[in-house]
Design a protein that fits this description.
Number of helices: 8
Order of helices and strands: HEHEHEHHHEEHH
Shape: globular
Helix content: 25-40%
Strand content: 5-15%
């Protein structure tokens, strides 16, 4: 069991992985939470940042030595449509001086994930590694993620109305996962690619290239992060 928001758990997972498996050729960082009230992990990090980005950052770094050297390998980080509105205030990632906003915190954590993906891929390329880093997002997905988010709770009148009208149009989890599967297993993908649904507003549809927030492409920001 791995709880990515807790660094001790991440280290314990790495230890177990080294003992029981020892090598890999694919890592998909998929764990995520969305729009929760302000909370922090045991190290004091804002919980959405810790879950959606910092845990994946730590896990990826710890597992890099175990990627096979004799075959191409991939690291796939799961993004979100919301990253397009993220600002990534790198001077206050933990919302210690800024008034907390649960949606902004979510979007910022996903900008961080995309920025990390592109910076990681640049660094892997410079070392001549056969590992590439890329990302994908599912668009909208009909999952149970609302159970842990008051903002998405279906007991909220607005949320209940939205789901009653829109649920039949929201892709199933299996369909929403297709861009992620393409990034993980598809032919012709390259490091630094970003995939998502190709339909209206990237909400659903056949997997295609997705738009990236320009902040995530900022190489100086990526290095600082």
């Amino acid at each position: 069991r791995l709880y990515v928001a807790d660094l001790q758990s991440v280290h314990e997972f790495k230890r177990q992985f080294e003992q029981e498996i020892g090598e890999l050729d694919l890592l998909v960082n998929n764990a995520g939470i969305v729009a929760i009230p302000l909370a922090r992990n045991s190290a004091g990090h804002e919980l959405q940042l810790a879950t959606n980005y910092l845990g994946a950052f730590a896990l990826t770094g710890l597992l890099l030595p175990f990627f096979r050297k004799d075959t191409p390998a991939r690291i796939v980080n799961v993004g979100s449509l919301a990253h397009r509105i993220g600002k990534l205030n790198i001077e206050d990632l933990n919302w210690e001086r800024t008034d907390y906003d649960q949606w902004k915190a979510y979007a910022n954590s996903k900008v961080a994930m995309l920025s990390f993906t592109l910076e990681l891929n640049r660094r892997l390329g410079k070392t001549g590694s056969r590992v590439i880093a890329l990302a994908a997002h599912p668009g909208f997905a009909n999952t149970n993620i609302h159970r842990n988010s008051p903002a998405l709770s279906r007991t909220n009148p607005v949320s209940k109305w939205f789901h009653s009208k829109m649920e039949r149009f929201i892709p199933t989890a299996a369909n929403a996962a297709r861009p992620i599967i393409l990034a993980a297993e598809g032919d012709g993908v390259e490091g630094g690619d970003y995939y998502g649904p190709g339909g209206f507003l990237e909400i659903g549809g056949k997997p295609s290239r997705a738009r990236i927030n320009p902040l995530a492409k900022d190489t100086d920001l990526g290095k600082r992060l």
